[in-house]
Automatic annotation (TrEMBL):
ARM repeats lie at residues 92-131. Keywords: Repeat, Ubl conjugation pathway. This is Uncharacterized protein. The keyword Repeat applies. The keyword Glycoprotein does not apply. It comes from the Eukaryota. It comes from Solanum bulbocastanum (Wild potato).
Length: 131
């Protein structure tokens, strides 16, 4: 049952573990995608309110690419900084995220669902999401 670990050699990469280096989910942004987001998250001085408002506005863009970028960044902000979860919800992100779940773009759906999931980790957001 399963793979035998005795057959693995130290110097040979296992295909089971080599997949861990791949980011098929797109969770980790490329440098060109959102360098400013990563810099902002690393800095204690960034204006997160302004950033969040821009991202919520981008969710309502006519461009699928802009919507995907915004949803991905909201998802990451909500995942990595618990204090952002309430801030994102208060900025009005929940309704646009939920409405984009029905998009025909599968990656946008994934980003939206995971953003809503991350926002739901804050108890205060659960009622807003349920409504």
């Amino acid at each position: 049952m399963g793979r035998s670990f005795t057959s693995l050699r130290i110097n040979e990469p296992s295909s089971a573990f080599s997949d861990c280096n791949n980011d098929r989910s797109g969770e980790f942004p490329t440098t060109s995608q959102c360098r400013w987001l990563l810099i902002a998250c690393a800095s204690d001085n960034y204006n997160s309110d302004e950033l969040v408002q821009q991202l919520v506005s981008d969710l309502e863009s006519n461009s699928i690419d802009v919507q995907k970028q915004a949803a991905m960044e909201i998802r990451l902000l909500a995942k990595n900084k618990p204090e952002n979860r309430l801030k994102i919800a208060r900025a009005g992100a929940i309704m646009p995220l939920i409405s984009l779940i029905s998009s025909t773009d599968l990656q946008l759906q994934e980003y939206d669902v995971t953003a809503v999931l991350n926002l739901s980790l804050c108890d205060e957001n659960k009622e807003l999401i349920a409504e």
